[in-house]
Design a protein that fits this description.
This protein is of the alpha/beta class. Helix content is 52%, strand content 16%. It has an eight-stranded mixed sheet, sandwiched between helices. The two termini are 29 Å apart.
């Protein structure tokens, strides 16, 4: 195995380890443990973690080591593992290319956008998928399209969590970030993003966000990028 293959194998193992940790945390939080109890359990688990590592090493010594590169999805458009990605662009364009590629690869899609979905279909060739149109006239369906006010962060976050949680393997596109920040303020939007990010990671899905740094305060853009797995 060459250096590049070893690096990829390490990163895949690292990703799977993070997923397993978040899944266990999510499971424990549903059982009513307090924050103090969770902290004690986490510290206890860390103290004996070496035993799990030794056990796995013994199993690998007795078994044929699997080919970790077999069946691994090829990165698309600069994307690596699942998680949230910030697409740096003056106007939303490349994000739709990435979205189409992931849908073509079999992912389930949810497109949350300030632009009317009919215009996205004609201009960017966005295929049929779930749509939430960010509009100031929410609470109704428009030709089968869900409509939400940009200030309804709780409802939008719930929709993302429900969609990504319905079997995972989802990609959520978010266009109109500057609009949402303007309607809610940056601190509220950042809290919204952090909550959404947790659900995306737990459910093994993608979140693609288009943002123009020139339309945002420099510090706010940096804080936004810090929450991402990667910036393209």
């Amino acid at each position: 195995m060459g250096d590049d293959e070893m690096r990829k194998a390490f990163l895949r193992g690292y990703e799977e380890g993070l997923k397993a940790a978040w899944r266990e945390i999510g499971l424990l939080t549903t059982r009513g443990y307090s924050s103090t109890e969770l902290s004690v359990m986490a510290k206890s688990k860390m103290a004996v973690l070496y035993r799990d590592v030794e056990s796995m090493a013994a199993r690998l010594a007795d078994e044929e080591v699997p080919d970790l590169s077999a069946g691994a999805p090829e990165p698309r458009g600069g994307l690596g593992g699942r998680g949230s990605y910030l697409i740096r662009e003056p106007k939303a364009s490349r994000i739709f290319d990435l979205y189409r590629e992931l849908l073509a690869a079999g992912a389930r899609g949810l497109c949350i956008t300030r632009t009317h979905p009919d215009d996205l279909r004609s201009k960017h060739g966005v295929p049929e998928s779930g749509f939430i149109w960010l509009s100031s006239t929410p609470g109704r369906k428009v030709k089968g399209i869900a409509v939400a006010a940009p200030s309804d962060l709780v409802d939008i976050a719930s929709a993302i969590a429900e969609f990504s949680g319905a079997g995972g393997d989802a990609v959520v596109l978010l266009e109109g970030v500057e609009y949402m920040i303007g309607q809610n303020g940056f601190p509220s939007f950042l809290r919204f993003l952090q909550k959404v990010n947790e659900k995306i990671v737990l459910n093994g899905s993608y979140l693609l966000i288009s943002a123009n740094p020139a339309a945002m305060k420099e510090q706010e853009y940096k804080l936004l990028a810090r929450e991402m797995v990667g910036e393209l």
